[in-house]
Amino acid sequence: MDPATVKACCAAAYSHDAVAVLLGDSYHPGGLALTRRLADQLKLRPGQRVADVACGPGTTARLLAAEYGVSVDGVDLNPSTVDTPGVRFHPGDAEQIPLPSNAFDALVCECAFCTFPDKQAAAAEFARLLRPGGRLGLTDITITRHLTTELTGLAGWIACLADARPVSAYAGLLSDAGLCITHRESHDAAISRMLDQIEARLTLLRIAGADWLDAARLDPAAVARHLDLARRAVADGTIGYTLLVAEKS
Ligand SMILES: C[S@@+](CC[C@H](N)C(=O)[O-])C[C@H]1O[C@@H](n2cnc3c(N)ncnc32)[C@H](O)[C@@H]1O
User: Fold this and answer.
1) Which atom of ligand 1 is nearest to the CA of 6?
2) pLDDT tens per residue across span 202-242
3) Alpha carbon nearest to ligand 1 atom 26, residue
């Protein structure tokens, strides 16, 4: 798939109403609890300026503004989110971010770096936006070995996770861009909890009637099969979830 198609596919997948119903407000493993953990690791202080790259529905941007008193610029390929106090949204590409250089105290990117076709360009953009001493907080899907064809199909279904990398590869890309890793945590169990949540919501939807599922073009049997595959990949350590903090020197 060429890069433009990957981006279009990913943006379209995450703008689907079914995603909001199945995932809730936060489109990443760990939900708001992991977002708060990331914000704490970034040591955010009121008045600071933060960029949220690939901000999705804007839940993180609003949380950071409301709970940490920072001002947030959110960027996503999908232009659907709306401005709220302390938060401004900008339609844009993570590989060419429409925001100024050396202007941000912190930058967050949750569950999206793995989807960018040109990770080197995105990492360079992160470094460009941050002021010297500014911090990047990233959470993302990791892999420990190449995904089997079965799992690549699954990855495509989850929407463009097929380009997830080992944590060492993410660290290498960030460090090549001038961002030095200062902290790392594993949150693999967060993926399992997210899969459980999706399954529970699907069960409720089935009970509510198949009409809604038909409208959302979701095949419950296929979803259940994919959930099972994903659970096994987490259990055998193939897929994980990581939190990284890096500082611009
Ligand atoms: C898994 S969702 C995560 C959204 C949000 N960060 C969150 O955790 O709730 C991935 C997001 O990345 C966005 N995205 C994918 N590729 C992008 C790109 N090249 N530039 C900007 N946004 C992108 C998608 O539109 C989607 O909103």
Assistant:
1) 16
2) 887 777 765 656 666 667 777 778 788 888 889 999 999 99
3) 56
Give, using CA atoms, the residue closest to atom 25 of ligand 1. 11
Structure tokens at 218: 């979701």
User: What spacing in Å lies between the alpha carbon of 98 and ligand 1's midpoint?
Assistant: 15
To test the pocket of ligand 1, the residue of 111, 114, 129, 141 to mutate (highest count of ligand atoms within 8 Å of its CB) is 111
pLDDT, tens digit, 9 for 90 and up, residues 83-116? 899 999 999 999 999 999 999 999 999 999 999 9
In whole angstroms, how far apart are CA 234 and each of 106, 128, 144, 151, 230? 30, 34, 10, 11, 6
- Averaged over 56-68, what is the pLDDT? 96
